[in-house]
Each structure stands twice: as structure tokens, then as C-alpha cells.
Design goal:
Pfam families: HPPK. InterPro entries: Hppk, Hppk_sf. Its EC number is 2.7.6.3. The longest helix has 16 residues. α1 packs antiparallel against α2 and α4 packs antiparallel against α5. Strands 1, 2, 3, 4, 5 and 6 form a six-stranded antiparallel sheet that branches. The protein is α+β, with helices and mostly antiparallel strands and 168 residues long.
């Protein structure tokens, strides 16, 4: 089992679209640990605000299989196969960390957005404050402490999810 961290985001009816995607994550990977949920303005394009947070869970799959499973969940929940990077989305699942793996294929790990986006770094630092990124030298709590928080506006919001239906 490998500990993985997944960034979750949505700005198209997020309170309706995120819970069923979390149910699918739970069915695929088992128990999930969620950070607080944050609302943030869209980055890189004009659009509705996003809800963003990070999920920690364990995977028995390879990096490629894990990335493919996340992509399948996105597609199953309305993300167009040809969605552009800076665009609105029903659900966005990005593999941030896969244990201590460092790679460029099939996905870049650790994901660069960790250091670049408050909506990724803040919730990740909450879940794993003492974790040092593979190839890094500072714990996530320190990276967040030193992050320029004037770059992006985000704020915690109330959000509740618990697994629903048959989770077998």
C-alpha cells in the first residue's frame, strides 16, 4: 500500500458534483481523509469560484493505474475528455503525491502545483504538515508558512461528506 494525496476541485455545481466523485474514490481506494474545504477564485481564467481540498488515501495500484482510475472518475462525473487546463469543471482529481515517487511519466510527481497554488498547498499542509516533498528539504507546514498568501484568495467553507449507498 502506498499513501497518495489527491487534489479535488470543482466550480460547476461543486456541492452536487463532488460527493458522488468522493463516493467513487472511496469505493476504489477505501477510507479517505479529507482536509478542510476551501473556496477560491478561479486561477488562470474567468469563471465561478472553486471548492478545493486534498484527500489522502492508500493505493495498491501502480502510479499509472492510480492516475487512470482518477481520470475514469473525472470522466464518469462529467469532465469532458478534451477539457482545457484553465477551464471550468465538474470535478478535477489531480494526483499530487504517490508515496515518495518522483517521475515525469505517466504523470509528474510530485505535482508542481503543490508549490504554486495556495488551494493545493494549504489543504495538503493541513493533512501532512511534517511531510517533506520527494526531492525537497522543507516540511509542507514550512512551505505553507513561507508561501506568499497575497497571490491567491481562498477561505475555508463548511462542507460535509460521508460515504453513501453501497460502498462494497
Amino acid at each position: 500500500m502506498t499513501r497518495i494525496y489527491i487534489s479535488v476541485g470543482s466550480n460547476i455545481c461543486p456541492r452536487e458534483n463532488i460527493p458522488p466523485a468522493l463516493d467513487d474514490l472511496y469505493r476504489r481506494f477505501g477510507p479517505l481523509t479529507l482536509s478542510r474545504v476551501f473556496e477560491s477564485e478561479a486561477v488562470g481564467f474567468d469563471g465561478d469560484n472553486f471548492l478545493n481540498f486534498v484527500v489522502a488515501c492508500d493505493s495498491q495500484l501502480s502510479v499509472a493505474e492510480t492516475a487512470a482510475a482518477l481520470r475514469r472518475i473525472e470522466l464518469d462525473h462529467g469532465r469532458p475528455p478534451d477539457a482545457q487546463k484553465f477551464s471550468s469543471r465538474t470535478v478535477d482529481l489531480d494526483l499530487l503525491l504517490y508515496g515518495d515517487a518522483q517521475c515525469r511519466e505517466p504523470v509528474v510527481l510530485p505535482r508542481g502545483e503543490i508549490r504554486d497554488n495556495a488551494f493545493v498547498l494549504w489543504p495538503l499542509a493541513e493533512l501532512a504538515p511534517e511531510l517533506i516533498l520527494p526531492g525537497g528539504d522543507l516540511p509542507l507546514s514550512r512551505l505553507w508558512q513561507e508561501f506568499d498568501k497575497t497571490q491567491q484568495k481562498l477561505w475555508p467553507v463548511a462542507f460535509h461528506w460521508s460515504p453513501s449507498g453501497d460502498m462494497q
